[in-house]
Amino acid sequence: MSHRVLSPQQFFHGSRHSFKPGDLLTPEGGAKAGSSWGAGQTDMHVYFTPERHKAAAFAEGGYGPSHDIDAPPRVYHVEPTGPHETDEMEEFPSFKTRHPVRVLGEVPYEA
Fold this sequence. Notes:
This protein is mainly beta and 111 residues long. The protein has 1 helix and 8 strands; from the N terminus they run ββββαββββ.
């Protein structure tokens, strides 16, 4: 497990949920807060990537509010608020954290 120091690198999070700048994505908050897997489900981490198109792919595979698969996929520019580590489960650059991730703004979705 490699912990990384915060850097000025840009990070993205994909979801079918609607967020506003300043919202905090947290693992214990379930789908609305950070996990894209389904309504009411929680995760141990919030995930993000420096690759915008990979965040879009995660958004496409997730569920929206109330387990809605038809909610539009969205991509957000995000900023981790604490230490994060490499997500070893992915073959591309991906990170996870147990700390909140702040939404900086929505970026145009490109499939």
